[in-house]
Write a structure and sequence with these properties.
With 132 residues, this protein is mainly alpha-helical. It has four helices and no strands.
Length: 132
C-alpha cells in the first residue's frame, strides 16, 4: 500500500508543480547517494544481525531484538514508499521533451533501485530477527 501511495504521489508531482507555476523538482546525485548509503546501513545491520543470531549463536537482548525488528519494519515501509515515489516520478518524465527530463529520469530510476534495496534489506533484517 505504501508503494502505491508513493507511486501516485511521485507521478502527480510533475503535473502539480507545473500547474501551480513552481519549478519542477529534480532528483540530485546527493539524494541518490543518500538512498544508497541508507541501503548499505540497513543491509549491514541485517547481515550483522543474522551472523550474530544464527552463525555465532549469540543472543541479543530483548530490547535490541525488538529495536532491530522495528527498524526493519519501518525501513521496509519507507523503502516501498520511496520506490513507488521515484518510479512514479520517472514515469512522469516519459514523453517530456525537456532537456533535463533525461537526467531526471535516470536519477529517479537509480534512486528507485536504491529504495528497492532498502526495502529488500529491511525485510532481510526482519527475517534475521526470527529466533529458532
Amino acid at each position: 500500500m505504501a508503494g502505491v501511495i508513493g507511486l501516485l504521489l511521485g507521478w502527480a508531482t510533475r503535473p502539480v508543480a507545473l500547474r501551480m507555476g513552481w519549478i519542477e523538482p529534480r532528483v540530485s546525485w546527493s539524494v541518490v547517494g543518500l538512498v544508497g548509503f541508507i541501503a548499505l546501513i540497513v543491509g549491514a545491520s541485517a547481515w550483522l544481525t543474522r551472523r550474530t543470531l544464527h552463525r555465532d549463536r549469540l543472543a541479543l537482548s530483548a530490547e535490541q531484538a525488538v529495536n532491530r525488528l522495528v527498524l526493519g519494519k519501518a525501513c521496509a515501509l519507507v523503502g516501498a514508499f520511496f520506490l513507488g515515489a521515484f518510479v512514479g516520478y520517472a514515469i512522469a518524465q516519459l514523453g517530456v521533451s525537456d532537456v533535463a527530463a533525461g537526467p531526471r529520469l535516470l536519477r529517479s530510476l537509480i534512486a528507485a533501485t536504491g529504495s528497492g534495496l532498502i526495502m529488500v534489506f529491511a525485510l532481510l533484517l526482519e527475517r534475521a530477527c526470527r529466533v529458532p
